């Protein structure tokens, strides 16, 4: 708070604004309580932290969450290995420590690594992360935003559980982490590290790190810019990936109940730094860097997503001529483009309509012509038939006439030669 007379220049956006003078206060004013005000406000507002646990079924994800938050989340049902695809299971809990309220969401993969074809195992996870970003973006874009009461579900940290094979990473691990590294803070951890020997573990860690580097996978680096934690964080960065052990069982050691796993040959104490890196993970994830991970999520990962989406929608900070464009200008331009496209479409439709009408007209004319010719030929046929019939009629009438004539002749013949017959008869009688 020591003020000096030195004038500092604070350029805004590179502009040459007037210098800002540092002045001495002549007594206590009180704005030194600002950090306290901030703390009070944050405490009242509650904290939200969302963890995404990725790892094969049975690697100890649920057990690890219980161990980390020293509680029993209701996730004890044993998952099977027979799911046809990867899903995500999300649960939200409210935890209270001292007077700090933490709304914790734990998301676990279900069925990860259980399919024969693991090519798209990452897709469900990518979709989940994007959906949370999208939900937040939609809230931000609303006219009536309620971000202060909005349940932020954006995943802040990803614990990636590596199988303790001692052989390096599996391809599913590399592919998945590569897909996620621009979307989330990845903390790789070696699961069930009690199953791997001390010398093997060192080699395993080196192998994993070199594979991550050679594949260009960006994992979360504990920040070293805050001097109060710089030293711890930079030394912890060298311990990644943490080799952890989790347990839901407790053993009494030195009159204290401690989380441990018991084996015929001895006991693994979860919180013993000689036994595993569990404490290091808890320190880094919860006690030291939780806030930084929330910040990274908002200012880095979400920002990337937001930029990508807005650009997809056609918004841009600069136009084609590299000059700044405002939201409104982009909107107007988009609207114009839209209207033009609509007009073009309308014109096209009209043209095609006209063409169709013309085609139909021609078709109809053709049909009419056909009908006419058909009608003509029918008429001709009909006339011919009529003529034929008339001729026939005439012939028949003539026939009837001749017949009648003959009939008459016969009848006359029958009446006339009666005398003749008489004579004949007479002569016969003779
Ligand atoms: N050896 C060993 N076993 C563990 C460890 N953590 C969990 N387990 C056991 O692994 C099994 C599966 O654990 P669970 O947490 O349900 O795995 P999830 O499917 O990944 O959630 C349980 O029997 C646990 O007791 C560990 O650190 N070491
Ligand atoms: Mg589980």
TrEMBL record:
It comes from the Eukaryota. Signal peptide: none annotated. Residues 45-312 form the Septin-type G domain. The keyword Nucleotide-binding applies. Keywords: GTP-binding, Nucleotide-binding. Residues 412-422 have a biased composition (Polar residues). Residues 370-393, 411-430 are annotated as: Disordered. Belongs to the TRAFAC class TrmE-Era-EngA-EngB-Septin-like GTPase superfamily. Septin GTPase family. PANTHER family: SEPTIN. This is Septin. It comes from Limulus polyphemus (Atlantic horseshoe crab). The lineage of its organism: Eukaryota, Metazoa, Ecdysozoa, Arthropoda, Chelicerata. The gene is LOC106463571.
């Amino acid at each position: 708070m020591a003020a000096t007379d030195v004038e500092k220049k604070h350029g805004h956006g590179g502009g040459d604004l007037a210098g800002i003078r540092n002045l001495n206060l002549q007594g206590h004013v009180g704005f030194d309580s600002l950090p306290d005000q901030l703390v009070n406000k944050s405490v009242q507002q509650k904290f939200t932290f969302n963890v995404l646990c990725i790892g094969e079924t049975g690697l100890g994800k649920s057990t690890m969450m219980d161990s980390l938050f020293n509680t029993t989340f209701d996730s004890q049902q044993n998952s099977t290995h027979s799911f046809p695809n990867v899903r995500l299971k999300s649960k939200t809990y409210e935890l209270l420590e001292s007077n700090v309220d933490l709304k914790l969401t734990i998301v676990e993969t279900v069925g990860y690594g259980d399919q024969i074809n693991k090519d798209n195992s990452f897709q469900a996870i990518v979709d989940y992360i994007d959906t949370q970003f999208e939900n937040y973006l939609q809230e931000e874009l609303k006219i009536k935003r309620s971000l202060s009461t909005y349940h932020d579900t954006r995943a802040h940290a990803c614990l990636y559980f590596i199988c303790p094979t001692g052989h390096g990473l599996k391809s599913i691990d590399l592919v998945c982490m590569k897909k996620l590294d621009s979307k989330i803070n990845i903390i790789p951890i070696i699961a069930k590290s009690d199953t791997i020997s001390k010398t093997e573990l060192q080699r395993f860690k080196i192998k994993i790190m070199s594979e991550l580097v050679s594949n260009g996978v960006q994992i979360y680096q504990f920040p070293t810019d805050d001097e109060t934690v710089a030293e711890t964080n930079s030394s912890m960065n060298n311990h990644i990936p943490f080799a952890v052990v989790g347990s839901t069982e407790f053993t009494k050691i030195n009159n204290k109940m401690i989380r441990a796993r018991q084996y015929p040959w001895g006991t693994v104490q979860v919180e013993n730094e000689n036994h595993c890196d569990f404490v290091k993970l808890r320190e880094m994830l919860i006690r030291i860097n939780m806030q930084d991970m929330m910040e990274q999520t908002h200012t880095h990962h979400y920002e990337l997503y937001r930029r990508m989406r807005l650009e997809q929608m056609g918004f841009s900070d600069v136009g084609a001529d590299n000059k700044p464009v405002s939201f409104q200008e982009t909107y107007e331009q988009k609207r114009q483009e839209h209207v033009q496209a609509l007009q073009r479409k309308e014109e096209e439709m009209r043209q095609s309509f006209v063409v169709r009408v013309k085609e139909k007209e021609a078709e109809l004319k053709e049909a009419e012509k056909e009908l006419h010719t058909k009608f003509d030929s029918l008429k001709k046929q009909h006339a011919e038939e009529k003529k034929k019939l008339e001729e026939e009629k005439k012939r028949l009438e003539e026939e009837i006439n001749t017949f009648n004539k003959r009939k008459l002749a016969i009848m006359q013949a029958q009446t006339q030669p009666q005398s003749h017959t008489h004579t004949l008869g007479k002569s016969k009688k003779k």
